Amino acid sequence: MGGRLARVFRTFNVENRARREISKEKPTPAPRHPGARLDQLADHPEIQEEIYRKDDRLLTLLKDVYVESKDPPGRVKDGGGEHLPCKQEEKRLTKLGHLGDLDVKKVPKGKISIVEALTLLNNHKLHPQIWTAEKIAVEYSLELKEVNSLLEFFIPFAVKEFPKETRKAI
């Protein structure tokens, strides 16, 4: 609705406004700076003569200059020379969960896949005395500090179903 109203005001009396704008007299350009005029050179022939005169002293100095250039030796770019050498990451096989084909097969040491993270969080929640932070760190090749942070800040969801008679009471 607002677009239609705006269009009506925008197109109101367009032809007359366009004719009025076209028929206006064009503004006169601003005057040029007096130092930028080329016609002043024609008034002073000594400047013209100085421009076109050859200076023999400068020509002899220019002839004495000798430039010898050499291209740097060509280097073969193999792609690896431009970057710093990186440490080859050690990889470990993942503990495959129930999503075997969809899960990642190899993970760098010190990292875990999402399926592994959910599995270890769930194991710790169900059996905290068996799945301690130290055992998880050894099992998944993680640092103990990171495992403690993971267990502290990430908690898997718990689904609770209420019996029908208590639903009405709630």
Radius of gyration: 41 Å
Bin the strand percentage.
under 5%
Structural class: mainly alpha
Q: What is the N-to-C succession of helices and strands?
A: HHHHHEEHHHH
Strand order of the largest sheet: 1-2
What percent of residues adopt helix (DSSP H or I)?
Answer: 40-55%
> Could you give the count of β-strands?
2
Head-to-tail CA distance between termini: 46 Å
Query: What would you call the shape?
Result: flat
Number of helices: 9
Name the average pLDDT. Answer: 79
Low-confidence stretches: none
Sheet having the most strands: 2 strands, antiparallel
Pfam family, one: UPF0240
GO cellular component, one term: mitochondrion
GO biological process, one term: mitochondrial respiratory chain complex I assembly
InterPro entries: NDUFAF4 (IPR009622)
Report what the structure shows:
With 170 residues, the chain is mainly alpha-helical. The protein has a domain at 91-153. The chain contains nine helices and two strands; from the N terminus they run αααααββαααα. It has helices spanning 2-11, 14-23, 39-43, 45-52, 56-64, 114-126, 133-139, 144-153, 164-169; strands at residues 91-93, 106-108. Helix 7 packs across helix 8 (144-153). The protein is flat. The two termini are 46 Å apart. The mean pLDDT is 79. It comes from Crotophaga sulcirostris. Binds calmodulin. Interacts with NDUFAF3. This is NADH dehydrogenase [ubiquinone] 1 alpha subcomplex assembly factor 4. Residues 18-44 are annotated as: Disordered. Residues 18-27 have a biased composition (Basic and acidic residues).
